[in-house]
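Researcher: Final request for today, and then I'll write up notes for the group meeting. The sequence and the SMILES for S-adenosylmethionine follow.
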Amino acid sequence: MKKILISEKGRKFLVKGAEFHSNHGRVDIEEGAESARSHLGHRFAVLDPDLIDIYEKMPRAGSYMLKKDMGMILGCLGVGTGAVVVDAGTGSGALAIFLGNVVGASGKVYSYERKPEFAAVARGNVKTAGLEDVVSVGVCDVLEGFREDNGSVDFVTLDLNEAWKTLEEVKRILRRGGRIAIYNPYIEHARLVHSRLVELGFMEIQTIESVTREMEFRAQGTRPKTSRVGHSGYLTFARKV
Ligand SMILES: C[S@@+](CC[C@H](N)C(=O)[O-])C[C@H]1O[C@@H](n2cnc3c(N)ncnc32)[C@H](O)[C@@H]1O
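Model: Predicted protein-S-adenosylmethionine complex:
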């Protein structure tokens, strides 16, 4: 049994099994219960974990993509049910899992990671998300090329060093009209990606930064939270014509 417990102060715990211990005390979770109380009197809401809970609580392998960037990628690519997507590098599998959740059982996400130990973490996370039939995680260095046939892929997502070196191969595997998203932490790298996309004849090339500000509602007044993500990465989108 896997459950999410949310305390009255909003702290979230992923619980495996019927008993849970924290500094809030011991909690016994009854089958089907919507709430539980610890032996110290703290109350928790009890929920089945959803995709966001899994994303927040999953083991990490290296740095991982933020929801603001994954949401932008899904929206700007227009990924839908049944699509075939190639994703690299996998890291802990955050983007691969969100892609898999959208393409569903009739689609496929082939995600590639060069570090076997990271791939193992990602496979575990894909399984926890219940997407092992949709998302496959392969170990390879995509700078040496992709395994997919010519024109066989609807979308490609790249989040790795030197992504610009893979773009000729990306063009080969993408179908005509297919789209690519590339994530770069540094603007110099986004510029190299942009130049290579132009050289290779991609169209609808656009680089953006997604900036979000969470609002804080307090007794004194309302304003953006003072602590926030300053920068994550630049997103470049393009289309094969
Ligand atoms: C920033 S992480 C990816 C995060 C991931 N996209 C996510 O959704 O959380 C970059 C990953 O790319 C992998 N990587 C770097 N170069 C690679 C290559 N040439 N082929 C495959 N994987 C690569 C790294 O090992 C690392 O795990």
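Model: The chain is about 25% helix and 35% strand. The pocket of S-adenosylmethionine is lined by residues 62-65, 88-89, 91-92, 94-95, 112-115, 118, 141-143, 159-161 (CB under 6 Å).
Researcher: Thanks, that's everything.
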